[in-house]
TrEMBL record:
InterPro entries: ADC_synthase, Chorismate_C, IsoChor_synthase. It catalyses: chorismate = isochorismate. PANTHER family: ISOCHORISMATE SYNTHASE ENTC. Keywords: Isomerase. It is an enzyme of class 5 (isomerase). One of its GO terms (biological process) is salicylic acid biosynthetic process. This is isochorismate synthase. It comes from Iodobacter fluviatilis. Pfam families: Chorismate_bind. Its EC number is 5.4.4.2. It comes from the Bacteria. Belongs to the isochorismate synthase family. GO terms for molecular function: isochorismate synthase activity.
Length: 396
């Protein structure tokens, strides 16, 4: 691809970002491409399991083809609990472009006066981590992920397109998204800047990029690098990461003729966090296997739930005082060929009018310290808080 054509694609990508409005079914940007869906052609029928949802997606695409849609694609969001309703639809059209420029025109977000309520309160969250550690020490679990939420109420409606632009500016290497969760004129938007690819399928090739093990970054370059190097050497974080990688590899192996799983993770960074990262790649036995089939085989990974899955879910239900909804679910797309891309819905918020709920979680293992896990969730909240101009909003 020559430089002129590459530049044109990036200009087109910026146009898609600037053209986003909240009635769009989805805006989705990665380091590989940008897409903006427009209009509503049909909805995917409700389903009570991920397996049933995959059948419903295939049926919706088949029906759209039969009624004249030239290129049907399913887009949207799937919740943490696969038995709960997903928000998937076939748009009338999808505009595509290359990746967003790494240097977008910078906005300086003005502080939005908000009231903030923690769910649960920070000390209650730390107590929940201590309770989970006791379970882990008793060998009931290898890992569990515990989340917190922040409920924000602003004096006026939140400017969602502006927030999306700010998130894209700060997330050049990750996945920036906005999904319309509402069929009514009043939008309810799932918006975020996730660093984590659950599954990408292109022809016979499949990729996954599990992240587990995190550390907050520092504004001091020397200290920042030391934190990253310490994360690479942390026995606690390496164990947490290994649990996730092994589970993802086990989920993909039955579908693959070859699977490459690196022996050790590498460092990946966002604006606020260091992460341990492993890039898994493979070749499918059957090219007809859809991206959603593969994603469903992995969801939810130990990176957002825990291991073993059933025991982790039970403990999450006991400790977390809210329904996760689409947080730690997946956002993405699947086309008529089965190709697609699904990311894990983290570093995200749900917005309706002047209210916004933020989410952040931390992976708990037997060596976890409650104060450290509380600090990790606070650091993860800053991705969205910074984007809203709430940098000095106080401790969260």
């Amino acid at each position: 691809m020559n430089d002129i054509f590459r530049g044109e694609l990036r200009t087109q990508a910026q146009y898609l970002l600037s053209g986003y409005q909240t009635d769009a079914p989805i805006f989705f940007a990665s380091a590989r491409h940008t897409m903006l869906a427009q209009g509503h052609y049909s909805s995917v029928a409700p389903a009570q399991s991920l397996e049933a949802l995959n059948h419903a997606v295939l049926a919706a695409i088949k029906q759209a083809k039969a009624t004249g849609h030239p290129d049907p694609m399913v887009v949207g969001a799937i919740p943490f609990d696969g038995q709960n309703p997903a928000c998937l639809s076939i748009p009338r059209s999808v505009l595509r472009a290359g990746p967003l420029p790494k240097s977008l025109a910078q906005l300086n977000p003005q502080a939005v006066p908000c009231t903030i309520k923690s769910l649960p309160e920070p000390q209650t969250y730390a107590d929940g981590v201590a309770k989970a550690v006791e379970h882990l020490k008793n060998k009931d679990l290898d890992k569990v992920v515990l989340a917190r939420a922040l409920d924000l109420t602003a004096a006026q409606a939140i400017d969602i397109p502006k927030l999306l632009l700010t998130l894209a500016q700060r997330n050049a290497h990750g996945y920036t998204f906005a999904v319309n969760l509402s069929a009514s004129p009043e939008p309810r938007i799932l918006i975020g800047a996730s660093p984590e690819l659950l599954l990408r399928k292109q022809g016979k090739l499949v990729f996954s990029n599990p992240l587990a093990g995190s550390a907050a970054r520092s504004s001091d370059p020397v200290e920042d690098r030391q934190r990253g190097e310490a994360l690479l050497q942390s026995a606690k974080d390496l164990h947490e990461h290994k649990v996730v990688v092994e589970a993802v590899a086990a989920g993909l192996r039955p579908f693959c003729s070859t699977l490459n799983v690196p022996a050790r993770p590498v460092l990946l960074h966002t604006e606020t966090m260091w992460h341990l990262s492993t890039e898994i790649s493979g070749e499918l036995i059957d090219e007809a296997t859809t991206s959603l089939t593969l994603a469903a085989a992995l969801h939810p990974t130990p990176a957002v739930c825990g291991y073993p899955n059933v025991a982790a879910r039970e403990l999450i239900a006991q400790i977390e005082p809210f329904d996760r909804g689409f947080y730690t679910g997946m956002v993405g797309w699947c086309d008529a060929k089965g190709d697609g891309e699904w990311i894990i819905t983290i570093r995200c918020a749900e917005i309706a009018g002047n209210t916004l709920r933020l989410f952040a979680g931390a992976g708990i293992v037997a060596a976890s310290l409650p104060a450290s896990e509380l600090a990790e969730t606070s650091a993860k909240f800053r991705t969205m808080l910074n984007g809203m101009g709430l940098v000095h909003a106080g401790e969260v």
